[in-house]
Amino acid sequence: MIFRTTTTSRTRPALRRVRTTTALRPLHHRLDPAAVEEIPFRASDGVRLGLTRVDSGETDRPAVLLLHGHTASADMFLLPETRNLVDVLLDDGYEPWLLDWRGSCRLPYNETGQKYTYDDVALYDIPEAVAHIRGRIGDRPLFVVAHCIGSLTLSLSMTAGLVPGLAGVVSQGVFLTPKLAGRTSLRMSVAGELLKTRIDHIPVDFRNVGLWSKYTPLFALASRKASCPDPTCQILHNSAWGTGASLFVHEHLSRTTHNRLAELLGPAPLWILPHLRRIELARSVVRWHDTDHRYRALPPNALDAAARIDTPVLLLAGSENGLWLDSQKLCHEVLAHRQPQLDVEYTQIPGYGHLDTFLGRGAALDVFGHILEFLGERR
Ligand SMILES: [Zn+2]
User: Fold this and answer.
1) How far is the CA of 234 from the centre of ligand 1 (A)?
2) Which terminus of the chain is more solvent-facing, meaning fewer CB atoms within 10 Å of its CB: N or C?
3) What is the pTM (predicted TM-score) of this model?
4) How far is the CA of 205 from the centre of ligand 1 (A)?
5) Contact 59, 105 (CB under 8 A)
6) Ranges for the AB hydrolase-1 domain (predicted)?
7) Structural domains of the chain, ranges and CATH numbers in brackets
8) pLDDT digits (tens, 9 = 90+) for 169-193
9) How far from the centroid of its chain's Cα atoms is residue 296's Cα?
10) What is the per-residue pLDDT across 33-42, written as a single tens digit (0 to 9) for each?
11) How many angstroms separate the CA atoms of 220 and 241, rounded?
12) Ligand 1 midpoint to CA 177 (Å)
């Protein structure tokens, strides 16, 4: 019997910790639980999403929909350890809504289940969430504040005319003219090569990966010249999931936020890279599906369709954005030249990187005031 046991353990494949349920991971917040309404929400292609309304107790407030970045989640706007964007919006008389679109780390799709492209987010997730919110708020104004890929995909929905009549949009990091660091774009083609190997996503939580695994070289690469000993921080701060970019200015994160990074940002799926690569090469948000008729509603090139934008836009970016560089400044210049009739502003946040514009311990002082000012002028 002893020998049989030994044989069994030798032949059994190593178990990988993957999520097999579409149940949403609980939100992490310090709001009154009675004020947090989690709405069962499924996109029309069958994918389960997360939609959350924060009840202020008043029914006449303008609504603000918050869109997270890829692999982040609604949690990025609810950090209990700082004065977060939801706190600030509630205090200023708004009703916050949070969408966990299919790239959220509260959902399993980045690791398991149905693969997707950003076309699906632009065609299904964002317009359908907006329609649902409109059904609830009636003719009250609806704003959107969007970060990173949440903003990039929103630009595709907007230029498709799928979310008309928004009261205003705040876009952080990137909008219609994505421009990645040269190093990042090179590494993206390297990562494309990884696709042909057994690797299908880049994890961030070293504790789940273990010391010796197929991911070890990625973590080793990220640790080069790192000043912080935390491997999860290294792969995000020094390497942005192996791309070589930097996601935040390190000293802007509180100790608590720093230690929660593996909860705030999930694994990055490598199968999304061909679409991201096409976008990056075009320097514009472009549709992935050229022949599938379901995606015909989306413009082939969002920048070329920018005349369809019917709402004021505030482009925000940290001066030290290590992922999208000065994409927002470029977007402002290009739109001012090509679509001078649009109401588009650009505000640079001195000293800030990318994610710290929302996760930073000082974001309420340094960043959120610009958002409130923009919303306040248009509510
Ligand atoms: Zn660190």
Assistant:
1) 6
2) N
3) 0.91
4) 13
5) no
6) 62-154
7) 33-178+286-376 (3.40.50.1820), 182-270 (no CATH)
8) 999 999 999 998 766 665 666 666 6
9) 24
10) 999 999 999 9
11) 12
12) 30
